Amino acid sequence: xxxxxxxxxxxxxxxxxxxxxxxxxxxxxxxxxxxxxxxxxxxxxxxxxxxxxxxxxxxxxxxxxxxxxxxxxxxxxxxxxxxxxxxxxxxxxxxxxxxxxxxxxxxxxxxxxxxxxxxxxxxxxxxxxxxxxxxxxxxxxxxxxxxxxxxxxxxxxxxxxxxxxxxxxxxxxxxxxxxxxxxxxxxxxxxxxxxxxxxxxxxxxxxxxxxxxxxxxxxxxxxxxxxxxxxxxxxxxxxxxxxxxxxxxxxxxxxxxxxxxxxxxxxxxxxxxxxx
Amino acid sequence: xxxxxxxxxxxxxxxxxxxxxxxxxxxxxxxxxxxxxxxxxxxxxxxxxxxxxxxxxxxxxxxxxxxxxxxxxxxxxxxxxxxxxxxxxxxxxxxxxxxxxxxxxxxxxxxxxxxxxxxxxxxxxxxxxxxxxxxxxxxxxxxxxxxxxxxxxxxxxxxxxxxxxxxxxxxxxxxxxxxxxxxxxxxxxxxxxxxxxxxxxxxxxxxxxxxxxxxxxxxxxxxxxxxxxxxxxxxxxxxxxxxxxxxxxxxxxxxxxxxxxxxx
Lengths: 276, 264
Description:
The structure holds two protein chains of two kinds. Chain A has helices spanning 13-33, 44-55, 64-99, 105-110, 115-133, 136-147, 151-176, 180-187, 192-226, 234-243, 247-275. Chain A is mainly α. The radius of gyration of chain A is 26 Å and the shape is extended. Chain B has a single domain, classed as MetI-like (MetI-like fold, Orthogonal Bundle). Helix content of chain B is 80%, strand content 0%. Chain B has helices spanning 14-34, 38-42, 44-55, 64-99, 105-120, 123-134, 138-162, 167-174, 179-213, 220-230, 234-263. In chain B, helix 4 (64-99) runs antiparallel to helix 5 (105-120) and helix 7 crosses helix 9 (179-213).
């Protein structure tokens, strides 16, 4: 008896080829709509422009004034993220308290909430949804119109978007913890805040803090990007240098930006590792 | 003899206290150095200006011709995100093979470094750089999404490959299958659902990103928003914002359903 080791044809080739064809047919209008023309990358004019820009990268700008300016912009970026997240935290906490179901007293008694409690809870949730659905960049773009160019718009944009995200995730974390402790406390006449502090928080504090640290890291990235619409920090400087096609400055800023993101990543993962 | 639990610790350990104090100092320094316009923020004029500003949004522009234009921009945004994610899925899975250490340690390190670099630079910065190479329009945005997402997906896919139990593939190879066949019939079927769900998850993210990429000139809804805001056509801008929100909500629910189907 001999085994046949030659490769048998793929038994499913027919359906695979059909699926590929259908995918291509569906993809075609998308390619047209996104003006997908890869050859544009390689025509002479754009190759020249790219080459010229990239050649400008070396050597990276390193004059003393520029580095000082960059240092200031970098601090501004960090400060925008931190201040924005602090404001977001201050807004998110009351919303979390309103939105968390575990802290409902009326639900405890009858199994479902009173109408008014339900209404307040749902309203709080919808406000959170609205706050986080509008992208931070759009908030920044709108706020720059109201408060003018500068960090105020950036801080507020982060505060608005992140309060929505923090509020939602905080409520989810609180609700995912074991509800029995809270229920016992509430049933025995404890107030809601006391039930929160002694029932839910001890079990969830590490997770809450670690999520906040992660969001701080995201806020730093966000505050760089918001600089592009004029909300201050390193992003605004990068946009200016990009518009002047100053490749050497752009390159230094990219390096600083990568360093900044790596540092934020390190700090937040260090904190999270210590906590869990 | 005192019970062991009587040796109490201080309520807050000194190291934590020091950390909390420096955190407070850090936050204070941030607010202090930013020179925020608190007065402008809470003054009557600011509230008045904001009210005027948001009042200008009403009613959103709903003429037939304008809605058509918004529809077209929405389609463009959708196409940018889908094509960008598709390209990233292709290159990400191609780079995941060396990044998972299948072609040696050095290839793994080099690919991971490349993926990290692609991933650390946000889509918007890529878009700004690529605008120089390909000019204004959705193609720059598509490429920016593709480049950044390749970094993200490549890393996630490589991690998924590395976490796979190796017995199945090894047993195929021991029995005489070529490495390529062993990969296709043992490793790939196991990671494919996870790869798909990562890709869908990134697509969801990329739609949000594509909606704002236009703000730097890379096509789609963002470009329209920037354009109308620059001309102070608030009612048109309001329609664009509503379209963005609707698109994001739609994609969120679609992706949620699809992922449930894949995981079920």
